[in-house]
Amino acid sequence: MLTSLSKFPYLRQDFLASIVVFLVAVPLCVGVAVASGVPAELGLITGIVGGLVTGLMPGSSLQVSGPAAGLTVLVFEAVSEFGVATLGVIVLIAGLLQLAMGFARIGRWFRAISVSVVEGMLCGIGLVIIAGQIYAAAGLKAPETGIGKIAGLPGAFADTFGDGDALVSLAIGAGTIAVIVLWRKLPKALRSVPGALAAVVLATAVTQVFGLKVATVEVEGLLGVVQPPGAEAFGELASPAIWGTIVAFTLIASAESLFSAAAVDRLHDGPRTQYNKEMIAQGAGNTVCGLLGALPMTAVIVRSSANVAAGARTKASRVLHGVWLLLFAAALPSALALIPIPALAGILVHAGWKLIPFRQIADMWRDHKGEALILVVTAVSIVAVNMFEGVLIGLALSVVKTAWEASHVRLEVVDKGAGPVQAYLTGNATFLRLPKILDSLESLPQDRPVELDLSGLHHLDHACRTALESWAERHSATGTEPVKLTRLTTAA
């Protein structure tokens, strides 16, 4: 016995932490699944795989994987367009791509993605989740687009206040949020129970005691919802449209997992994340989830931070949390059917609110207005278009901003009143600075010879090279001596 304990010196800490993570995971797994438009059990299956498969693999020892609120919008769109049966294929291929990226050692490059794009992505996701789940809390059908969800809120509230059942349903959702927020102010002994779990239990008890007419989770059992993708589902891969969704799943799930790993590393003093191995672990988990027809998996910061805060020391805590999820889903599936959907909507509204980086937006606007603009544009694009294209827009803006800042070029003109006008270009001459360069050169005297020295340039792109040559030809055509270009051929 002593020998066994010596092999697992942190078993007690990991065991207690696993219970806490399990209690946090249950309502989140179910809530994310319902919000994604799939059976609740699929969320539990993904949580189980996150514990028993990804949890056993090397990478990040303390972060916990499962279905994430951040992918809710994308999953809902995919299910609406391609159907639940095709979801498994999408997740499977995304998992295989993650495995390939991990083995190709691409994982570490995700750390280079602009923070403003990541924060904008989370902000946009949070806004869409909040808007969509308000409809769910009131028992109403939400519009399909992000803009439609937000624009339709006034009408939804008007309909709710004119319908007694809808008002009761919304009140349960609002009460759930209130319990989660106020739970942190209670004595420490009570706070050992996660606020999300307490809110769900209280909402369930209230609806049962008072016989309230609200929608509840529909449960069929784990085996009843497992749908390995068939030949027809694989046939969807012939459609170009599905590949955009697959790429979006791959990139966003990978980015969210690795950004979460970086955040979790800042919460503890244990072993640091091995990013390529973590990518492989996430890929393995998503491959299994795809084969089971379940939701896609990411590392989840809410569970991971709860794991660290509960005192976990090794990966045993996250593996055990998967064991508890499996036992719960197998032994007590009927308990899920008592959970009111507005309570789960309340949990996701709270989760969506926490995704909006209010403090980061304020800090960026004060110190880096360009980064703040990228954050806001990314968030608005996700709401207005969709997640994948919104992130691409944010990344494109980030690249343009970086290129603009890197294109520092200076034109110094020396005119001694007689002889040629001497112009010196230094720095990095790219197309982004081309208008400024040409405006300055075209203002030089037309009746004087010009010597343009490019030896001080570190970089001269093709667009600038062509434009300078064209300007030199035009200037020389006025009857003056030809423009003398110094070291144009050696500029990189």
UniProtKB/TrEMBL annotation:
Residues of the SLC26A/SulP transporter domain: 11-378
InterPro entries: SLC26A/SulP_dom (IPR011547), SLC26A/SulP_fam (IPR001902)
Transmembrane regions: 15-35, 42-62, 82-100, 112-136, 166-183, 195-217, 237-259, 280-302, 322-351, 372-397
Domain of life (superkingdom): Bacteria
Location within or outside the cell: Membrane
Listed GO biological process terms: transmembrane transport
Recorded topology in the membrane: Multi-pass membrane protein
Protein name per Swiss-Prot or TrEMBL: Sulfate transporter
Keywords, sorted A to Z: Membrane, Transmembrane, Transmembrane helix
Keyword Membrane listed: yes
GO cellular component, one term: membrane
